[in-house]
Amino acid sequence: MKKALLALIVAPLFAVYATFAVADDAVDASAETIKEYTEMCLNWAKDDDISNEELKPYVLKCVNDELGSEGYKKVTDVKI
Q: Model-level pTM?
């Protein structure tokens, strides 16, 4: 019984640790990769009729989504 209880306590802690360990493995994207994603996201913003006020947050989220899906670290700013 004690082993089962211990396993129930330790398993979630291990899962949280593993999640953070994987997140730390992300690498920085090159400036060229960020530029390519920014241009791609700008094109998508035009297709989606995004206003000028919403453009930068839209592109930043889009770029970070693409970077994350490729295993790169997110960025805090993009040059539009």
A: 0.69
